[in-house]
Each structure stands twice: as C-alpha cells, then as structure tokens.
Amino acid sequence: MSSSDPRSAVEDAGEVLPWRAPSLGGQEEPDGAMPLPTAEEIEAIQRQAWNEGYEQGRQEGLQAAERESAERIRALDRMLQEMARPLDELDERVEEELVALAMAVARQLIRREVKTDPGQIIGVIREGIRLLPVAAGNVRLELHPEDAALVRELLNLGEGEERSWHIHEDPTLTRGGCRISNATSRIDATLENRINQVVAAVLGGERVEDQS
C-alpha cells in the first residue's frame, strides 16, 4: 500500500531543493548588463563638454570682435573723409571769393576811368582796329548809343560820313566798350571782356572763365 504523505515522497526521492523567493521585478537582470559610470567618468565627460563649449564660444567671440573692429575702422575712415571735405570746399569758396573781388575791383577801376574820361573810348577803338588785318575794309563798329554820339562828335563825323567803316548803336553794350568786326575778323573790346583780361592776368584764365 502506497503512502499519501508528500514529505515521504520527497524523502523517497533522495533530494532536497532550496526555497527561493519570487522575483518582484518581473525579469532578472542578465549577467552581461553594462555597469553604471563612475564619478570620475562623469566628471571627465562634464569637463570635455565644458572645454568644447568654451572653445566654440571663444571662436564666436573672436569673430564678433573682428567684425566690430572692421566696422569701427570703416566708421573712422568715413569720419576722416567728412572732416577733409569742408577744407576742400573752403578752399574753393576762398578762391571764388578772390576772383569775385578781383573782378569787382577791376570793374570799378575801368568804369571810373570811363566816367572820368569818356573820350578814352577812342583809344579802345584804335587798339581794336589795330588788331584787325591790314587790308581790312568795311569795318563795323558797335557802340553804346552815348559812346556812338561821343565818337561822332570827337571825330566831327556826320551821320553819313563814316567812310570805310560805320557805327552801329547797341544799347545792350556797357559804356566804355565796343565790338569791332569785318568780313573775316571780330574783336571783343567790351568792358566785361577787358575786366576778365585784367583778372586773368592776376589769377589765371581758367577761374575767370568759370566766373564769366
């Protein structure tokens, strides 16, 4: 007759098994799991990351400083150019004022001579005719009406007694000046042109031409 006692069954088998508590995690960790990093390894990783970030920040800072320096240099160059420009403009203004002053002085002197001695128009006419070719004929003499009357009076000429040259009255001419011409030549002895010649002898022709 067989026994129903389980202990006797285990004892009959001749083996006793140890008791194990059941696992609460569900699964047991495998024998080959990676170990956690140590404190030294964590510190090394942090130091490497800091060094890489520092180098990147340093490069960006250097590039920003170079851009700022270049912009400041350009700004300084623009400022120097702006400072030099007024000096150039001042030189031009001074030169223009000198030309204007010289022309004003010459104009006053010549006009005073004309007013003091109206008869000097005869000398102006003779000088102009002398510049024409020797064989020049049919000379046309343009004068202010008052100078035209003065020339006729000084030379005792009537209206039709002007011979090989004739007088043409031009009220737009300034007293003391004239224009003399023939078929091939033209002499500008106007008061304005003579003033320009006086100023040109002092300051040079280019600036006088600009003012005229």
From TrEMBL:
Q: Where in the cell is it found?
A: Cytoplasm
The UniProt entry's sequence similarity note says:
Belongs to the FliH family.
Q: Which GO terms fall under molecular function for this chain's record?
A: cytoskeletal motor activity
- Does Transmembrane appear among the keywords? no
Q: What is its main location?
A: cytoplasm
GO CC annotations, alphabetized: bacterial-type flagellum; cytosol
Name the UniProt record assigns to this protein: Flagellar assembly protein FliH
Q: Which PANTHER family match?
A: FLAGELLAR ASSEMBLY PROTEIN FLIH (PTHR34982:SF1), YOP PROTEINS TRANSLOCATION PROTEIN L (PTHR34982)
